[in-house]
């Protein structure tokens, strides 16, 4: 049965953000459906493209490349997500003669989306933007909500803007070439979203193993995640309140990721972070079965549920300082009390010192 696909529309900003999903063009097709159906007004856009995606899909994206007004191919490496790359994109835009009415299309994973969108939001004080996410993580999360940014002095996303895309294109073909580890990174964000606002997504995760996911199930999963995120960011674009819930799993996750010197991938660390943060929530009255339920689902996704080395209290305290929810005394934590019941809790540093070691011990291998 053919899926009935309609646009998702989010009132995040003016103009609204439209999410449009395209069917796969099928094996042997000479182009991607989203490119064949691209409205004329976007055809001569300036393109920022993940270089790996440009290489893998060069043949299918040829017509887009040739009608564009310029192309910047970006290597997706966290150490290149910086102001130098931003400067290179601006210069490339200048060289291509980009004007105020030249739109920008960014095609790639979250890293390219964040950097390319920041270039679009700052060049000539802001250009129209379309995002075509190509990793699962960027499809379910990074493409929507307008956060752009680059790293500075080793700190992630330290400078950035809010510049929501006018159009987001979901084209599932891109997932065919995605390495398994990258797919699993995305699944951690899917589980996070299920926990925050749509427990029904659990059944999609549970019913099927990665290899047997049908394209329709993946699209349903992506759309349901985008609905949860879209509703939250439509209420709180600038992250003054409820948007902080989207950081679930990330407070402990970022600490573990840094402490492991990035041997743990982002998704692996966020998965472990969700277990630890559910254990913290139990201390405040949360569902005591939740840490085990999260572990079970992470195992389904092929993500780790324990680690060898737990960082010491000193390392924890130092790394937590970089968390963007840090306030003058302690931090705001997004804690999962139960499915669809995540709360923002302010913990003082004294409380953190008392509670964290216990919560982290639940991750010990
Ligand atoms: N703006 C937001 O709201 C938001 C939310 C979450 C994460 N992020 C950011 O997203 C970034 C992580 O993004 P990511 O997980 O998508 O990873 P990524 O963009 O770093 O891509 C991971 C790897 O996959 C490759 N790749 C991309 N698409 C591919 C495809 N279709 N086939 C084969 N290879 C492909 C890339 O070249 C790269 O090597 C981080 O920098 C994070 O800060 C932003």
**How many separate domains?**
2
Second CATH tier, the architecture of the largest domain:
3-Layer(aba) Sandwich
- Across the major sheet, the strand order is 1-2-9-6-5-3-4
Report how far the terminal alpha carbons are from each other: 45 Å
| CATH C-level category of the largest domain | Alpha Beta
Q: Share of helix among residues?
A: 40-55%
Order of helices and strands: EEHEHHEHEHEHEEEHHHHHHHEEH
- Compounds present? nicotinamide-adenine-dinucleotide
Structural class estimated from helices and strands = alpha/beta
Ranges with pLDDT <50 over ≥5 residues?
none
Major β-sheet profile: 7 strands, mixed
Radius of gyration: 20 Å
Number of helices: 14
Overall geometry: globular
CATH topology call of the largest domain: Rossmann fold
What portion of residues belong to β-strands? 15-25%
What's the β-strand tally? 11
Mean of the pLDDT scores? Answer: 92
SSE diagram, text form:
Blueprint: E1 8-10, E2 17-21, H1 33-36, E3 46-50, H2 51-56, H3 58-67, E4 70-74, H4 83-95, E5 104-108, H5 110-122, E6 129-133, H6 136-142, E7 150-152, E8 155-159, E9 167-170, H7 180-197, H8 201-207, H9 215-235, H10 250-259, H11 266-283, H12 290-300, H13 313-320, E10 331-338, E11 341-347, H14 349-361
Parallel strand pairs: 2-9, 3-4, 3-5, 5-6, 6-9
Antiparallel strand pairs: 1-2, 7-8, 10-11
Helix pairs in contact: 4-5, 6-7, 6-9, 7-9, 7-11, 10-11, 10-13, 11-12, 11-14
């Amino acid at each position: 049965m053919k899926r009935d696909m309609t646009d998702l529309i989010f009132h995040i900003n003016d103009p609204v953000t439209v999410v449009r999903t395209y069917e796969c063009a099928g094996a042997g097709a000479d182009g991607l459906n989203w490119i064949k159906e691209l409205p004329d007004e976007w055809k001569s856009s300036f393109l920022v493209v993940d270089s790996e995606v440009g290489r893998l899909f060069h043949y299918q994206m040829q017509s887009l490349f040739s009608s564009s007004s310029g192309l910047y191919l970006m290597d997706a490496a966290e150490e290149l997500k910086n102001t130098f790359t931003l400067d290179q994109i601006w210069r490339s835009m200048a060289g291509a003669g980009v004007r105020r009415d030249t739109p920008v299309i960014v095609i790639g994973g979250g890293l390219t989306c964040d950097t390319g969108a920041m270039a679009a939001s700052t060049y000539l004080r802001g250009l129209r933007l379309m995002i075509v996410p190509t990793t699962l993580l960027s499809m379910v999360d990074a493409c929507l909500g307008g956060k752009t940014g680059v790293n500075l002095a080793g700190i992630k996303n330290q400078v950035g803007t809010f510049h929501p895309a006018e159009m987001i294109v979901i084209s599932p073909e891109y997932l065919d070439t995605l390495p398994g580890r990258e797919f699993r990174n995305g699944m951690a964000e899917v589980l996070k979203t299920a926990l925050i606002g749509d427990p029904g997504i659990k059944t999609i995760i549970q019913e099927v193993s990665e290899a047997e996911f049908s394209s329709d199930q993946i699209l349903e999963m992506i759309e349901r995640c985008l609905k949860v995120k879209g509703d939250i960011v439509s209420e709180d674009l600038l992250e003054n309140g409820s948007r902080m819930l989207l950081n679930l799993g990330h407070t402990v996750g970022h600490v573990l990721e840094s402490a492991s010197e990035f041997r743990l991938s982002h998704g692996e660390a966020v998965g472990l972070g969700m277990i630890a943060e559910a254990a913290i929530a139990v201390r405040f009255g949360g569902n005591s079965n939740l840490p085990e339920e999260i572990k079970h689902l992470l195992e389904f996704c092929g993500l780790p549920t324990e680690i060898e080395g737990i960082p010491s209290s000193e390392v924890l305290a130092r790394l937590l300082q970089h968390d963007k929810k840090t306030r003058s005394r302690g931090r705001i934590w997004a804690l999962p009390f139960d499915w669809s019941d995540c709360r923002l809790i302010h913990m003082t540093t004294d409380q953190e010192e008392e509670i964290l070691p216990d919560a982290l011990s639940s991750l010990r291998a």
